[in-house]
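2024-03-11 09:14:02 DEBUG pipeline.ingest accepted 1 chain
2024-03-11 09:14:02 DEBUG pipeline.ingest length=149
2024-03-11 09:14:03 DEBUG pipeline.predict start
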Amino acid sequence: MALVVEDDPFAVTIAACGVLAAAAGSEFCIEGFGRKQWPVDVAYDLSTFLEATPDLMASVREGQVGEVDLYGQGVECQLSFGGGDPVEVRCVSQSGWQPAPEHEVEHVTREELIRMLTDLVRDTAQAVAVVAPSLARREPFRAWSKGIV
């Protein structure tokens, strides 16, 4: 089956995450704010997170506030990343689930957050190269495979 995808990087990301979701062994995990494992998936939630990653990475590098909105059912929240170091991460739920009061704010060093985001995009690009080489040759995966975010 041939995939036909627009040149829009987000459309490429959505298509790639769909192919990854169908592949055995693909998973996307988020935890924190008093929740061990969030109900996220590769097809929808990973593509949403990846869409926000370049802007988030730029904000983090510049010491500015960044945000990621997650829309999936059971996840609906906004993650806000403060501009300091360590980075103060807040979760504002838009569903019935609320972070436990003692877990309303998480902290991560700027260096560790940059490493986590870089690893996420690079590892995703490498997985896409295995399951959908034609998509891996397109942006954003071509840049991400080199660790460029």
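2024-03-11 09:14:41 DEBUG pipeline.report The helical segments are 9-22, 42-61, 110-131, 133-136, 141-144.
2024-03-11 09:14:41 DEBUG pipeline.predict end
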